[in-house]
Amino acid sequence: GQSLEQPSEVTAVEGAIVQINCTYQTSGFYGLSWYQQHDGGAPTFLSYNALDGLEETGRFSSFLSRSDSYGYLLLQELQMKDSASYFCAVPGGGNKLTFGTGTQLKVEL
Amino acid sequence: DVKVTQSSRYLVKRTGEKVFLECVQDMDHENMFWYRQDPGLGLRLIYFSYDVKMKEKGDIPEGYSVSREKKERFSLILESASTNQTSMYLCASSLTGGGDIQYFGAGTRLSVL
Fold first, then answer.
1. Residue B99: which of A33, A87, A101 has the nearest Cβ?
2. pLDDT per residue over A35-88, tens digit each?
3. Which residues contact A61 (CB under 8 A, 6 or more apart)?
4. Distance from CA of B69 to the nearest CA of A (A)
5. H helices of chain A, where?
6. With the C-alpha atoms ordered B20, A44, A105, B35, is the resulting torsion angle positive or negative?
7. Residue A77: which residues within 8 A CB-CB, separation 6 or more?
């Protein structure tokens, strides 16, 4: 089966850089995804890493190390609107995704 | 833009009632999913479907069933609602499986009294 571990909560100040870690255990690995969910909103896709290394999309970057079964989401120049929950996810058997329990990011002034 | 629409934003039902949650997607996606979301537990997969009339159990299928008679519509059924099924229910769809992007609906917050 699949299991993912991420911190439950992270707090940072506006303008700072924050890293949200995710470690996973899977029977087969095909990639690591990240989703963002604002309070009361729907999860939305942020990034997908199939290969080792850093993928950058604007202020957000995602990193994967398959040898360490580890990835992280890096948010730069934090803004208040980045306050949300962030979920890592891995493909499971068949067509499904298994999600982590989520990290609640609080951005403070 | 992909649109996934869930029929109700809030729903209140009584214990023992049969409950239908409806989800429609407009992008001709093959795969559709039902999750429930509870504080501290993340998103847990209930059922998914990779084609019309095809379904597979997810991680927590007990107490639920699903129906997919048309490609765009995926229904979640609670045969006899219980209080422990009070939760946020999220529907999603994706073109292909695995790591492909899943598009989510706004969710249905179900309260079973």
1. A33
2. 999 999 999 999 999 999 999 989 999 999 999 999 999 999 999 999 999 999
3. A54, A55, A73, A74, A76
4. 19
5. none
6. positive
7. A15, A17, A59
